[in-house]
What we know:
It is a single chain. The protein is α+β, with helices and mostly antiparallel strands. The chain is 29% helix and 25% strand. The chain has 5 helices and 6 strands. The strands form 2 sheets. Strands 1-6-5-4 form a 4-stranded mixed sheet. The model has no long low-confidence stretch (mean pLDDT 87).
Amino acid sequence: VLIINEVGLDPGIDHLGAMKMIHHATSSPGCRVLKFSSLCGGLPAPEAAGSSPLGYKFSWSPKGVLLASRNSAKWMQDGKLCEVPGSELLASAKPMTLNNALAFDVLPNRDSTAFAELYGMPEVPTFFRGTLRYRGYCERMITVARLGLLEPGP
């Protein structure tokens, strides 16, 4: 498990950490990765999350963050290709609870399958890259979308 705090995630620090772990895990003969999952997100400290209606820290373009909630996604799950159209992305979120204080929505992040190739693991049965948001984010954003506020046009 690698935890990185605000050190330039979007330029690819997540990829560096992933590659280091993959190389370590596969360095012994006969060892291979069967499942890969990478989750990240712009999360304020839990005690500060309530100060934002979305519980999100805009560490990059607010417009980009909002429009990203309309991106389609695809990933491999137990050898099967899973796809979600952008219009259903927010509704596809899965809950994840780490402890009583950390409850998240997990969204698939765009095309994970392209990264399986780049990471040298095209045959891994489960390969998922996801986005973390505090629980309730997706429900609130679905309401924003229904109001038409996530459409890219004027």
